[in-house]
Protein backbone atom coordinates (compact mmCIF):
# COMPACT_ATOMS: atom_id res chain seq x y z
CA UNK A 1 0.00 0.00 0.00
CA UNK A 2 1.11 3.56 -0.68
CA UNK A 3 1.48 6.12 2.08
CA UNK A 4 -1.73 7.24 3.76
CA UNK A 5 -3.21 10.42 2.32
CA UNK A 6 -5.01 12.73 4.73
CA UNK A 7 -7.45 15.38 3.59
CA UNK A 8 -7.29 18.64 5.59
CA UNK A 9 -11.09 19.03 5.75
CA UNK A 10 -12.99 17.92 8.85
CA UNK A 11 -16.29 16.39 7.78
CA UNK A 12 -19.34 16.96 9.96
CA UNK A 13 -20.63 13.39 9.81
CA UNK A 14 -19.04 10.44 8.02
CA UNK A 15 -21.28 7.44 7.43
CA UNK A 16 -19.87 4.02 6.52
CA UNK A 17 -22.38 2.03 4.46
CA UNK A 18 -25.41 2.99 2.39
CA UNK A 19 -28.05 0.36 3.15
CA UNK A 20 -31.15 0.78 5.30
CA UNK A 21 -29.22 2.30 8.21
CA UNK A 22 -26.76 4.46 6.30
CA UNK A 23 -29.40 5.62 3.83
CA UNK A 24 -31.72 6.65 6.65
CA UNK A 25 -28.95 8.54 8.45
CA UNK A 26 -28.01 10.40 5.26
CA UNK A 27 -31.65 11.24 4.52
CA UNK A 28 -32.53 12.50 8.01
CA UNK A 29 -29.34 14.45 8.70
CA UNK A 30 -29.23 16.25 5.35
CA UNK A 31 -32.89 17.20 5.77
CA UNK A 32 -31.95 18.71 9.13
CA UNK A 33 -29.17 20.76 7.55
CA UNK A 34 -26.19 18.56 8.46
CA UNK A 35 -23.47 17.86 5.90
CA UNK A 36 -22.79 14.15 5.45
CA UNK A 37 -20.01 12.24 3.70
CA UNK A 38 -20.96 8.66 2.90
CA UNK A 39 -18.38 5.92 2.23
CA UNK A 40 -19.57 2.88 0.26
CA UNK A 41 -17.39 -0.17 -0.39
CA UNK A 42 -19.09 -0.80 -3.73
CA UNK A 43 -19.65 1.34 -6.82
CA UNK A 44 -22.23 4.02 -7.51
CA UNK A 45 -25.59 2.83 -8.86
CA UNK A 46 -27.39 3.93 -12.02
CA UNK A 47 -30.81 2.20 -11.92
CA UNK A 48 -31.74 3.14 -15.49
CA UNK A 49 -28.65 1.51 -16.93
CA UNK A 50 -28.12 -1.35 -14.51
CA UNK A 51 -31.44 -2.68 -13.23
CA UNK A 52 -32.85 -5.43 -15.40
CA UNK A 53 -36.35 -5.89 -14.03
CA UNK A 54 -37.99 -6.07 -17.47
CA UNK A 55 -35.41 -8.13 -19.33
CA UNK A 56 -36.60 -11.50 -20.53
CA UNK A 57 -34.30 -14.53 -20.20
CA UNK A 58 -33.65 -14.55 -23.95
CA UNK A 59 -32.28 -10.98 -23.71
CA UNK A 60 -29.53 -11.99 -21.27
CA UNK A 61 -26.42 -14.04 -21.92
CA UNK A 62 -27.03 -17.73 -21.25
CA UNK A 63 -30.67 -16.97 -20.46
CA UNK A 64 -29.78 -15.25 -17.20
CA UNK A 65 -27.23 -17.75 -15.91
CA UNK A 66 -24.63 -15.02 -15.79
CA UNK A 67 -20.96 -15.57 -15.18
CA UNK A 68 -20.08 -15.21 -11.52
CA UNK A 69 -23.61 -15.71 -10.22
CA UNK A 70 -24.70 -12.04 -10.53
CA UNK A 71 -28.31 -13.10 -10.43
CA UNK A 72 -29.91 -9.76 -9.75
CA UNK A 73 -28.27 -6.94 -11.68
CA UNK A 74 -24.88 -5.33 -12.07
CA UNK A 75 -23.64 -6.60 -15.39
CA UNK A 76 -20.59 -4.83 -16.70
CA UNK A 77 -19.02 -3.72 -13.43
CA UNK A 78 -15.87 -5.44 -12.27
CA UNK A 79 -16.62 -8.03 -9.62
CA UNK A 80 -20.36 -7.43 -9.72
CA UNK A 81 -22.25 -6.25 -6.68
CA UNK A 82 -23.00 -9.47 -4.89
CA UNK A 83 -21.33 -12.60 -3.62
CA UNK A 84 -19.75 -14.31 -6.59
CA UNK A 85 -17.81 -17.41 -5.51
CA UNK A 86 -18.13 -20.48 -3.26
CA UNK A 87 -21.73 -21.14 -4.18
CA UNK A 88 -22.63 -17.45 -4.01
CA UNK A 89 -21.63 -16.67 -0.43
CA UNK A 90 -18.23 -15.01 -0.79
CA UNK A 91 -16.92 -11.95 -2.58
CA UNK A 92 -13.88 -12.37 -4.81
CA UNK A 93 -10.84 -11.26 -2.85
CA UNK A 94 -12.87 -10.65 0.32
CA UNK A 95 -13.11 -13.98 2.12
CA UNK A 96 -14.35 -14.87 5.57
CA UNK A 97 -13.66 -18.00 7.57
CA UNK A 98 -15.77 -20.31 9.73
CA UNK A 99 -14.64 -21.95 12.96
CA UNK A 100 -14.37 -25.71 13.38
CA UNK A 101 -17.74 -27.35 13.88
CA UNK A 102 -19.70 -24.33 12.66
CA UNK A 103 -21.53 -23.33 9.54
CA UNK A 104 -22.19 -19.75 8.46
CA UNK A 105 -22.97 -17.98 5.19
CA UNK A 106 -22.34 -14.25 4.93
CA UNK A 107 -24.06 -12.41 2.09
CA UNK A 108 -22.80 -8.93 1.19
CA UNK A 109 -23.98 -6.42 -1.41
CA UNK A 110 -21.25 -4.05 -2.52
CA UNK A 111 -23.25 -1.25 -4.17
CA UNK A 112 -24.82 2.07 -3.19
CA UNK A 113 -28.04 1.04 -1.45
CA UNK A 114 -26.72 -2.39 -0.50
CA UNK A 115 -29.24 -5.16 -0.01
CA UNK A 116 -32.17 -2.76 -0.06
CA UNK A 117 -31.91 -2.77 -3.87
CA UNK A 118 -33.08 -6.37 -4.02
CA UNK A 119 -34.35 -7.63 -0.66
CA UNK A 120 -37.83 -9.08 0.03
CA UNK A 121 -39.14 -5.82 1.58
CA UNK A 122 -41.12 -7.51 4.35
CA UNK A 123 -41.71 -4.62 6.75
CA UNK A 124 -42.93 -5.75 10.16
CA UNK A 125 -42.89 -3.76 13.39
CA UNK A 126 -41.55 -5.43 16.50
CA UNK A 127 -44.30 -5.90 19.08
CA UNK A 128 -44.27 -4.40 22.57
CA UNK A 129 -43.17 -7.69 24.12
CA UNK A 130 -40.31 -8.10 21.62
CA UNK A 131 -38.41 -5.29 23.34
CA UNK A 132 -38.62 -7.00 26.74
CA UNK A 133 -38.04 -10.70 26.01
CA UNK A 134 -36.32 -11.42 29.32
CA UNK A 135 -39.39 -10.25 31.22
CA UNK A 136 -41.49 -12.85 29.37
CA UNK A 137 -39.49 -16.02 29.89
CA UNK A 138 -36.16 -15.23 31.54
CA UNK A 139 -34.22 -15.79 28.31
CA UNK A 140 -32.03 -13.32 26.46
CA UNK A 141 -31.82 -9.65 27.42
CA UNK A 142 -34.23 -6.71 27.45
CA UNK A 143 -33.69 -3.77 25.11
CA UNK A 144 -32.96 -0.38 26.73
CA UNK A 145 -35.90 1.08 24.78
CA UNK A 146 -39.58 0.22 24.54
CA UNK A 147 -42.13 0.01 21.74
CA UNK A 148 -43.42 3.45 22.74
CA UNK A 149 -39.93 4.88 22.23
CA UNK A 150 -39.62 3.57 18.69
CA UNK A 151 -43.25 3.73 17.48
CA UNK A 152 -43.05 7.38 16.26
CA UNK A 153 -40.05 6.43 14.14
CA UNK A 154 -41.84 3.41 12.70
CA UNK A 155 -44.51 5.94 11.68
CA UNK A 156 -41.96 8.18 9.98
CA UNK A 157 -40.20 5.32 8.19
CA UNK A 158 -43.44 3.75 6.94
CA UNK A 159 -44.73 7.10 5.71
CA UNK A 160 -41.54 7.74 3.73
CA UNK A 161 -40.86 4.32 2.25
CA UNK A 162 -44.50 3.24 1.78
CA UNK A 163 -45.71 0.00 3.40
CA UNK A 164 -48.82 -1.97 2.47
CA UNK A 165 -51.01 -3.62 5.08
CA UNK A 166 -54.29 -3.70 6.96
CA UNK A 167 -55.20 -2.82 10.53
CA UNK A 168 -55.82 -6.12 12.29
CA UNK A 169 -55.31 -5.43 16.01
CA UNK A 170 -52.94 -8.40 16.42
CA UNK A 171 -50.50 -7.85 19.27
CA UNK A 172 -47.71 -9.88 17.67
CA UNK A 173 -48.02 -7.81 14.47
CA UNK A 174 -48.59 -4.15 15.44
CA UNK A 175 -50.51 -2.00 13.00
CA UNK A 176 -48.75 0.85 11.26
CA UNK A 177 -49.07 3.58 8.66
CA UNK A 178 -50.29 1.48 5.75
CA UNK A 179 -51.13 1.88 2.11
CA UNK A 180 -53.92 -0.32 0.74
CA UNK A 181 -52.67 -3.87 0.19
CA UNK A 182 -52.84 -5.56 -3.21
CA UNK A 183 -55.51 -8.25 -3.55
CA UNK A 184 -54.68 -11.88 -2.70
CA UNK A 185 -53.58 -14.30 -5.39
CA UNK A 186 -55.62 -17.43 -6.10
CA UNK A 187 -53.28 -19.87 -4.36
CA UNK A 188 -53.09 -17.56 -1.35
CA UNK A 189 -56.85 -17.74 -0.92
CA UNK A 190 -56.51 -21.53 -0.62
CA UNK A 191 -53.83 -21.09 2.04
CA UNK A 192 -55.94 -18.50 3.87
CA UNK A 193 -58.99 -20.79 3.98
CA UNK A 194 -56.92 -23.73 5.24
CA UNK A 195 -54.96 -21.77 7.84
CA UNK A 196 -58.04 -20.07 9.27
CA UNK A 197 -59.72 -23.47 9.68
CA UNK A 198 -56.77 -24.28 11.95
CA UNK A 199 -57.07 -21.01 13.89
CA UNK A 200 -54.12 -19.30 12.21
CA UNK A 201 -54.73 -15.76 10.93
CA UNK A 202 -53.71 -15.07 7.33
CA UNK A 203 -53.63 -11.34 6.60
CA UNK A 204 -52.39 -8.87 3.96
CA UNK A 205 -48.62 -8.72 3.89
CA UNK A 206 -46.73 -5.68 5.14
CA UNK A 207 -44.27 -4.87 2.36
CA UNK A 208 -42.39 -1.75 1.30
CA UNK A 209 -44.01 -1.65 -2.14
CA UNK A 210 -46.25 1.28 -3.13
CA UNK A 211 -49.89 0.89 -4.11
CA UNK A 212 -50.27 4.67 -4.44
CA UNK A 213 -47.82 7.36 -5.50
CA UNK A 214 -45.52 8.92 -2.87
CA UNK A 215 -43.07 11.78 -3.46
CA UNK A 216 -43.10 11.24 -7.20
CA UNK A 217 -42.67 7.48 -6.93
CA UNK A 218 -45.49 5.77 -8.85
CA UNK A 219 -47.49 2.83 -7.58
CA UNK A 220 -46.19 -0.67 -8.30
CA UNK A 221 -46.95 -1.88 -11.82
CA UNK A 222 -46.94 -5.56 -10.69
CA UNK A 223 -44.11 -6.86 -12.85
CA UNK A 224 -43.07 -9.18 -10.02
CA UNK A 225 -39.34 -8.53 -10.51
CA UNK A 226 -38.54 -6.78 -7.22
CA UNK A 227 -35.30 -8.66 -6.65
CA UNK A 228 -33.86 -7.35 -9.93
CA UNK A 229 -34.16 -3.67 -9.00
CA UNK A 230 -37.12 -1.33 -9.55
CA UNK A 231 -36.48 1.44 -12.07
CA UNK A 232 -39.61 3.34 -11.00
CA UNK A 233 -38.64 3.15 -7.29
CA UNK A 234 -42.13 1.81 -6.58
CA UNK A 235 -40.53 -0.39 -3.98
CA UNK A 236 -38.20 0.83 -1.26
CA UNK A 237 -34.47 0.97 -1.68
CA UNK A 238 -32.27 3.31 0.31
CA UNK A 239 -30.48 4.29 -2.90
CA UNK A 240 -33.54 5.66 -4.71
CA UNK A 241 -35.74 6.72 -1.78
CA UNK A 242 -33.18 8.24 0.57
CA UNK A 243 -29.68 8.64 -0.86
CA UNK A 244 -30.47 10.12 -4.27
CA UNK A 245 -32.88 12.70 -2.77
CA UNK A 246 -30.26 13.54 -0.12
CA UNK A 247 -27.76 14.21 -2.92
CA UNK A 248 -30.17 16.78 -4.34
CA UNK A 249 -29.92 18.82 -1.12
CA UNK A 250 -26.26 19.51 -1.86
CA UNK A 251 -25.40 18.36 1.66
CA UNK A 252 -24.42 14.76 0.82
CA UNK A 253 -21.15 13.62 -0.71
CA UNK A 254 -20.60 9.99 -1.70
CA UNK A 255 -17.18 8.37 -1.90
CA UNK A 256 -17.74 5.00 -3.57
CA UNK A 257 -15.36 2.05 -3.86
CA UNK A 258 -14.03 3.01 -0.42
CA UNK A 259 -13.25 0.07 1.88
CA UNK A 260 -13.24 1.17 5.52
CA UNK A 261 -10.24 -0.24 7.35
CA UNK A 262 -10.03 1.19 10.87
CA UNK A 263 -11.04 3.99 13.21
CA UNK A 264 -8.52 6.45 14.67
CA UNK A 265 -9.05 8.03 18.11
CA UNK A 266 -7.21 10.86 19.86
CA UNK A 267 -6.24 8.98 23.01
CA UNK A 268 -8.99 10.72 24.98
CA UNK A 269 -11.93 8.61 23.82
CA UNK A 270 -12.90 10.59 20.73
CA UNK A 271 -12.94 9.46 17.11
CA UNK A 272 -10.87 11.76 14.89
CA UNK A 273 -10.48 9.90 11.59
CA UNK A 274 -11.50 6.89 9.55
CA UNK A 275 -8.91 5.11 7.41
CA UNK A 276 -10.19 3.60 4.18
CA UNK A 277 -8.77 2.04 1.05
CA UNK A 278 -9.56 3.55 -2.34
CA UNK A 279 -10.29 0.44 -4.39
CA UNK A 280 -9.46 2.25 -7.64
CA UNK A 281 -5.91 3.16 -6.64
CA UNK A 282 -5.36 0.67 -3.77
CA UNK A 283 -4.11 3.61 -1.71
CA UNK A 284 -5.06 4.23 1.90
CA UNK A 285 -6.66 7.55 2.80
CA UNK A 286 -7.98 9.26 5.93
CA UNK A 287 -11.06 11.36 6.50
CA UNK A 288 -11.24 13.63 9.53
CA UNK A 289 -14.70 13.73 11.06
CA UNK A 290 -16.69 15.34 13.84
CA UNK A 291 -19.03 12.33 14.11
CA UNK A 292 -18.65 8.82 12.70
CA UNK A 293 -21.57 6.48 11.98
CA UNK A 294 -21.01 2.81 11.23
CA UNK A 295 -23.82 1.36 9.10
CA UNK A 296 -21.87 -1.20 7.14
CA UNK A 297 -24.11 -4.12 8.28
CA UNK A 298 -23.95 -5.86 11.65
CA UNK A 299 -20.89 -8.02 11.04
CA UNK A 300 -18.98 -5.54 8.88
CA UNK A 301 -19.40 -2.83 11.53
CA UNK A 302 -18.18 -5.26 14.18
CA UNK A 303 -15.20 -6.08 11.96
CA UNK A 304 -14.24 -2.41 11.67
CA UNK A 305 -14.45 -1.92 15.44
CA UNK A 306 -12.47 -5.09 16.21
CA UNK A 307 -9.76 -4.15 13.69
CA UNK A 308 -9.41 -0.68 15.27
CA UNK A 309 -7.09 -1.44 18.17
CA UNK A 310 -5.44 1.43 20.01
CA UNK A 311 -3.65 1.90 23.31
CA UNK A 312 -6.90 3.09 24.89
CA UNK A 313 -8.97 0.38 23.18
CA UNK A 314 -6.76 -2.72 23.04
CA UNK A 315 -9.75 -4.97 22.25
CA UNK A 316 -11.08 -2.68 19.54
CA UNK A 317 -12.64 0.78 19.59
CA UNK A 318 -15.79 0.99 21.74
CA UNK A 319 -15.27 -2.56 22.98
CA UNK A 320 -14.41 -2.14 26.66
CA UNK A 321 -17.40 -4.43 27.34
CA UNK A 322 -15.98 -7.19 25.15
CA UNK A 323 -19.37 -7.74 23.51
CA UNK A 324 -18.49 -6.53 20.01
CA UNK A 325 -18.92 -9.52 17.73
CA UNK A 326 -20.80 -11.45 20.39
CA UNK A 327 -24.46 -12.54 20.52
CA UNK A 328 -24.70 -12.85 16.76
CA UNK A 329 -28.15 -13.94 15.57
CA UNK A 330 -29.86 -14.95 12.35
CA UNK A 331 -33.50 -15.76 11.68
CA UNK A 332 -34.61 -19.36 12.14
CA UNK A 333 -35.69 -20.61 8.73
CA UNK A 334 -37.57 -23.70 7.63
CA UNK A 335 -39.42 -24.32 4.39
CA UNK A 336 -41.78 -26.91 2.99
CA UNK A 337 -43.49 -27.15 -0.39
CA UNK A 338 -46.41 -29.19 -1.70
CA UNK A 339 -48.21 -29.93 -4.93
CA UNK A 340 -51.89 -28.97 -4.70
CA UNK A 341 -53.98 -31.01 -7.17
CA UNK A 342 -56.94 -28.63 -6.96
CA UNK A 343 -54.81 -26.05 -8.79
CA UNK A 344 -54.42 -28.29 -11.84
CA UNK A 345 -56.12 -27.20 -15.03
CA UNK A 346 -57.07 -23.72 -13.87
CA UNK A 347 -57.00 -20.88 -16.40
CA UNK A 348 -53.60 -19.23 -16.46
CA UNK A 349 -53.43 -15.65 -15.25
CA UNK A 350 -50.70 -13.14 -14.43
CA UNK A 351 -49.93 -13.80 -10.77
CA UNK A 352 -46.72 -11.74 -10.60
CA UNK A 353 -48.27 -9.07 -8.39
CA UNK A 354 -46.09 -6.89 -6.21
CA UNK A 355 -43.34 -9.48 -6.12
CA UNK A 356 -43.50 -12.16 -3.44
CA UNK A 357 -46.62 -12.88 -1.42
CA UNK A 358 -49.63 -10.63 -0.89
CA UNK A 359 -50.66 -12.50 2.28
CA UNK A 360 -48.73 -13.85 5.26
CA UNK A 361 -49.40 -15.43 8.65
CA UNK A 362 -48.17 -13.52 11.72
CA UNK A 363 -47.35 -15.41 14.91
CA UNK A 364 -50.55 -16.66 16.49
CA UNK A 365 -49.27 -18.51 19.57
CA UNK A 366 -47.82 -15.76 21.74
CA UNK A 367 -50.58 -16.08 24.37
CA UNK A 368 -49.96 -19.81 24.85
CA UNK A 369 -46.22 -19.92 24.22
CA UNK A 370 -45.34 -22.02 27.25
CA UNK A 371 -47.73 -24.80 26.27
CA UNK A 372 -46.16 -25.08 22.81
CA UNK A 373 -42.85 -26.35 24.16
CA UNK A 374 -40.54 -23.68 22.71
CA UNK A 375 -40.08 -20.10 23.91
CA UNK A 376 -40.42 -17.77 20.89
CA UNK A 377 -42.55 -17.44 17.77
CA UNK A 378 -42.39 -17.32 13.98
CA UNK A 379 -44.36 -16.02 11.03
CA UNK A 380 -45.14 -17.81 7.76
CA UNK A 381 -44.44 -16.55 4.25
CA UNK A 382 -46.19 -18.03 1.21
CA UNK A 383 -44.91 -18.81 -2.27
CA UNK A 384 -46.61 -20.01 -5.43
CA UNK A 385 -48.46 -18.88 -8.53
CA UNK A 386 -47.57 -18.69 -12.19
CA UNK A 387 -44.04 -17.42 -12.01
CA UNK A 388 -41.77 -16.98 -15.03
CA UNK A 389 -41.03 -20.54 -16.25
CA UNK A 390 -37.87 -22.00 -14.86
CA UNK A 391 -36.62 -24.82 -12.69
CA UNK A 392 -38.42 -23.49 -9.61
CA UNK A 393 -41.66 -22.92 -11.50
CA UNK A 394 -41.95 -26.41 -12.93
CA UNK A 395 -41.09 -28.18 -9.69
CA UNK A 396 -40.67 -31.90 -10.11
CA UNK A 397 -40.99 -31.70 -13.91
CA UNK A 398 -37.47 -30.30 -14.00
CA UNK A 399 -36.29 -33.59 -12.53
CA UNK A 400 -38.27 -35.83 -14.91
CA UNK A 401 -36.61 -37.71 -17.74
CA UNK A 402 -37.93 -37.84 -21.29
CA UNK A 403 -38.79 -35.35 -23.97
CA UNK A 404 -41.48 -34.39 -26.43
CA UNK A 405 -45.26 -34.31 -26.08
CA UNK A 406 -45.41 -36.31 -22.85
CA UNK A 407 -42.93 -34.11 -21.00
CA UNK A 408 -44.64 -30.95 -22.25
CA UNK A 409 -48.02 -32.21 -21.08
CA UNK A 410 -46.58 -32.99 -17.64
CA UNK A 411 -45.05 -29.51 -17.47
CA UNK A 412 -48.39 -27.89 -18.29
CA UNK A 413 -50.20 -29.97 -15.66
CA UNK A 414 -47.65 -29.21 -12.97
CA UNK A 415 -47.10 -25.52 -13.72
CA UNK A 416 -48.63 -23.36 -10.99
CA UNK A 417 -49.65 -26.24 -8.72
CA UNK A 418 -46.82 -25.80 -6.23
CA UNK A 419 -47.23 -23.84 -2.98
CA UNK A 420 -44.42 -23.24 -0.51
CA UNK A 421 -44.36 -22.05 3.07
CA UNK A 422 -41.35 -20.50 4.72
CA UNK A 423 -41.14 -20.08 8.47
CA UNK A 424 -39.16 -17.15 9.84
CA UNK A 425 -38.61 -17.44 13.57
CA UNK A 426 -36.87 -15.84 16.51
CA UNK A 427 -33.44 -16.98 17.60
CA UNK A 428 -32.41 -16.47 21.22
CA UNK A 429 -28.82 -15.12 21.47
CA UNK A 430 -26.26 -17.53 22.87
CA UNK A 431 -22.57 -17.55 23.79
CA UNK A 432 -21.68 -19.94 20.97
CA UNK A 433 -22.71 -17.64 18.12
CA UNK A 434 -20.29 -14.82 17.41
CA UNK A 435 -17.73 -13.41 15.00
CA UNK A 436 -14.11 -12.51 15.66
CA UNK A 437 -11.05 -11.44 13.71
CA UNK A 438 -9.28 -14.35 12.02
CA UNK A 439 -5.64 -14.17 13.20
CA UNK A 440 -4.12 -15.37 9.92
CA UNK A 441 -6.38 -14.39 7.02
CA UNK A 442 -6.65 -11.00 5.30
CA UNK A 443 -8.60 -9.83 2.28
CA UNK A 444 -7.11 -8.45 -0.93
CA UNK A 445 -6.85 -5.03 0.74
CA UNK A 446 -4.77 -6.42 3.59
CA UNK A 447 -7.59 -6.09 6.12
CA UNK A 448 -8.00 -8.98 8.62
CA UNK A 449 -11.25 -10.85 7.95
CA UNK A 450 -13.97 -12.25 10.19
CA UNK A 451 -14.16 -15.79 11.49
CA UNK A 452 -17.66 -17.00 12.34
CA UNK A 453 -18.85 -19.40 15.01
CA UNK A 454 -22.51 -20.38 15.21
CA UNK A 455 -24.81 -22.81 16.96
CA UNK A 456 -28.56 -23.28 16.97
CA UNK A 457 -29.91 -24.22 20.40
CA UNK A 458 -32.72 -26.63 21.27
CA UNK A 459 -35.05 -23.62 21.39
CA UNK A 460 -34.61 -23.04 17.66
CA UNK A 461 -34.61 -26.75 16.79
CA UNK A 462 -37.92 -27.27 18.62
CA UNK A 463 -39.35 -24.20 16.90
CA UNK A 464 -38.41 -25.52 13.44
CA UNK A 465 -40.02 -28.85 14.30
CA UNK A 466 -43.24 -26.98 15.12
CA UNK A 467 -42.98 -25.15 11.79
CA UNK A 468 -42.89 -28.42 9.91
CA UNK A 469 -45.86 -29.83 11.82
CA UNK A 470 -47.84 -26.64 11.16
CA UNK A 471 -47.03 -26.52 7.45
CA UNK A 472 -47.98 -30.18 7.01
CA UNK A 473 -51.29 -29.55 8.77
CA UNK A 474 -52.08 -26.60 6.50
CA UNK A 475 -51.15 -28.57 3.38
CA UNK A 476 -53.22 -31.55 4.52
CA UNK A 477 -56.20 -29.27 5.09
CA UNK A 478 -56.03 -28.01 1.49
CA UNK A 479 -55.33 -31.47 0.04
CA UNK A 480 -51.70 -30.75 -0.80
CA UNK A 481 -49.06 -33.43 -1.35
CA UNK A 482 -45.83 -32.51 0.47
CA UNK A 483 -42.79 -32.97 -1.73
CA UNK A 484 -39.79 -30.96 -0.58
CA UNK A 485 -37.99 -29.08 2.18
CA UNK A 486 -35.79 -26.02 1.85
CA UNK A 487 -32.02 -26.27 2.25
CA UNK A 488 -31.04 -26.78 5.87
CA UNK A 489 -28.17 -27.83 8.10
CA UNK A 490 -27.88 -30.98 10.22
CA UNK A 491 -30.20 -29.55 12.88
CA UNK A 492 -33.06 -29.30 10.38
CA UNK A 493 -32.94 -25.48 10.29
CA UNK A 494 -31.70 -23.18 7.56
CA UNK A 495 -27.92 -22.91 7.32
CA UNK A 496 -26.89 -20.09 9.70
CA UNK A 497 -26.63 -16.77 7.88
CA UNK A 498 -28.55 -17.97 4.84
CA UNK A 499 -31.75 -16.06 5.70
CA UNK A 500 -29.56 -12.91 5.53
CA UNK A 501 -30.96 -11.42 8.74
CA UNK A 502 -27.72 -11.40 10.73
CA UNK A 503 -27.99 -8.93 13.63
CA UNK A 504 -26.75 -8.29 17.13
CA UNK A 505 -22.94 -8.09 17.01
CA UNK A 506 -22.75 -4.58 18.56
CA UNK A 507 -25.75 -4.64 20.86
CA UNK A 508 -27.29 -1.79 22.81
CA UNK A 509 -28.09 -1.76 26.52
CA UNK A 510 -28.14 0.31 29.70
CA UNK A 511 -24.99 -1.21 31.24
CA UNK A 512 -21.65 -0.34 29.56
CA UNK A 513 -20.20 -3.52 31.02
CA UNK A 514 -22.55 -5.76 29.02
CA UNK A 515 -23.37 -3.69 25.93
CA UNK A 516 -21.59 -1.51 23.38
CA UNK A 517 -24.32 1.06 22.60
CA UNK A 518 -26.93 3.09 24.43
CA UNK A 519 -30.55 3.33 23.30
CA UNK A 520 -29.67 5.96 20.68
CA UNK A 521 -27.12 3.67 18.95
CA UNK A 522 -24.29 5.75 20.45
CA UNK A 523 -21.30 3.85 21.81
CA UNK A 524 -20.84 3.95 25.57
CA UNK A 525 -17.07 4.42 25.22
CA UNK A 526 -16.93 7.04 22.46
CA UNK A 527 -19.51 9.84 22.35
CA UNK A 528 -19.03 10.75 18.69
CA UNK A 529 -19.34 7.16 17.38
CA UNK A 530 -22.69 5.56 16.46
CA UNK A 531 -23.66 2.17 15.01
CA UNK A 532 -26.87 2.41 12.97
CA UNK A 533 -27.41 -1.03 11.48
CA UNK A 534 -28.58 -4.44 12.67
CA UNK A 535 -25.57 -4.71 14.95
CA UNK A 536 -27.45 -2.73 17.60
CA UNK A 537 -30.15 -5.41 18.02
CA UNK A 538 -30.50 -7.02 21.44
CA UNK A 539 -32.85 -9.74 20.23
CA UNK A 540 -33.97 -10.99 16.82
CA UNK A 541 -37.76 -11.43 16.85
CA UNK A 542 -39.55 -13.24 14.03
CA UNK A 543 -39.99 -9.93 12.20
CA UNK A 544 -37.65 -9.11 9.31
CA UNK A 545 -35.15 -6.51 10.58
CA UNK A 546 -35.04 -3.78 7.91
CA UNK A 547 -37.94 -1.61 9.08
CA UNK A 548 -36.56 -1.60 12.63
CA UNK A 549 -33.12 -0.63 11.29
CA UNK A 550 -34.81 2.29 9.50
CA UNK A 551 -36.63 3.37 12.67
CA UNK A 552 -33.63 3.05 14.98
CA UNK A 553 -31.41 4.97 12.54
CA UNK A 554 -34.03 7.72 12.22
CA UNK A 555 -34.25 8.08 16.00
CA UNK A 556 -30.46 8.07 16.35
CA UNK A 557 -30.09 10.70 13.61
CA UNK A 558 -32.48 13.16 15.24
CA UNK A 559 -30.67 12.68 18.54
CA UNK A 560 -27.32 13.11 16.80
CA UNK A 561 -28.36 16.35 15.12
CA UNK A 562 -29.65 17.78 18.39
CA UNK A 563 -26.45 16.85 20.23
CA UNK A 564 -24.41 18.51 17.48
CA UNK A 565 -26.48 21.69 17.77
CA UNK A 566 -25.99 21.67 21.54
CA UNK A 567 -22.22 21.33 21.13
CA UNK A 568 -22.11 17.92 22.78
CA UNK A 569 -20.70 16.26 19.66
Write the layout of secondary structure elements.
Layout: E1 5-16, H1 20-31, E2 36-39, H2 47-50, E3 97-98, H3 133-137, H4 147-161, H5 186-197, E4 203-204, H6 238-248, E5 252-255, E6 258-265, E7 271-278, E8 283-294, H7 298-306, E9 332-339, E10 359-361, H8 369-372, E11 378-384, H9 391-394, H10 405-414, E12 418-425, E13 434-442, E14 448-453, H11 458-477, E15 481-485, E16 529-531, H12 546-565
Helix pairs in contact: 1-6, 1-12, 4-12
Q: Write down the overall mean pLDDT.
A: 91
The total of beta strands comes to 16
Kindly report the name of the CATH homologous superfamily of the largest domain.
Answer: FAD/NAD(P)-binding domain
CATH second-level architecture of the largest domain: 3-Layer(bba) Sandwich
Low-confidence stretches: 67-80, 83-87, 390-395
Helix percent band? 10-25%
Q: Strand content of the residues, in percent?
A: 15-25%
Secondary-structure element string: EHEHEHHHEHEEEEHEEHEHHEEEHEEH
How many helical stretches?
Answer: 12
Structural class: alpha/beta
Q: Assign the CATH class of the largest domain.
A: Alpha Beta
Shape: globular
Biggest pleated sheet: 7 strands, mixed
- Radius of gyration (Å): 23 Å
Provide the number of structural domains: 2
What CATH calls the topology of the largest domain is FAD/NAD(P)-binding domain
Terminal-residue CA separation: 33 Å
Describe what you observe in this structure.
- The chain is α/β, with parallel strands linked by helices and 569 residues long.
- It folds into two domains: 1-121 and 124-162 and 236-331 and 431-454 and 502-569, FAD/NAD(P)-binding domain (3-Layer(bba) Sandwich); 181-233 and 332-425 and 456-495, Cholesterol Oxidase, domain 2 (2-Layer Sandwich), CATH 3.30.410.
- It is built from twelve helices and 16 strands.
- It has helices at 20-31, 47-50, 133-137, 147-161, 186-197, 238-248, 298-306, 369-372, 391-394, 405-414, 458-477, 546-565, and strands at 5-16, 36-39, 97-98, 203-204, 252-255, 258-265, 271-278, 283-294, 332-339, 359-361, 378-384, 418-425, 434-442, 448-453, 481-485, 529-531.
- The strands form three sheets. Strands 1, 2, 5, 6, 7, 8 and 16 form a seven-stranded mixed β-sheet that branches. A six-stranded antiparallel β-sheet has the order 4-10-11-12-9-15, covered by helices on one side. Strands 3-14-13 form a three-stranded mixed β-sheet, covered by helices on one side.
- Helix 1 packs parallel to helix 6 (238-248), helix 1 (20-31) packs parallel to helix 12 (546-565) and helix 4 (147-161) crosses helix 12 (546-565).
- It is globular and about 70 Å long.
Amino acid sequence: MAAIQTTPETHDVVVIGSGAGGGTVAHVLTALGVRVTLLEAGPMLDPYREFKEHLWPYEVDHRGAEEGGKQYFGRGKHGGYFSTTSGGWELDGEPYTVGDGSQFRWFRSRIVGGRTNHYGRMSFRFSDYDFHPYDRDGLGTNWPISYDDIAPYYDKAETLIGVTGSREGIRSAPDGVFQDPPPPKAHELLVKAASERLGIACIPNRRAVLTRSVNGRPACHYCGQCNRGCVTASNYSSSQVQIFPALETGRLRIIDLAMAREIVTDGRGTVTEIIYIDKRTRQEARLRCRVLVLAASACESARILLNSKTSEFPNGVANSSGVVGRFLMDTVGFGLSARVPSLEGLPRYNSDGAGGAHLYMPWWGWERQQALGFPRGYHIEIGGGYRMPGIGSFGRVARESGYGVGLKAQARRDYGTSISMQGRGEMIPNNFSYCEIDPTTVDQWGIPVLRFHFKWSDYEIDQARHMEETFRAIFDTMGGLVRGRSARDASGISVPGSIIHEVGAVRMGTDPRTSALNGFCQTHDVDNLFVCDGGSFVSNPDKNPTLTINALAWRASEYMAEEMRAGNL
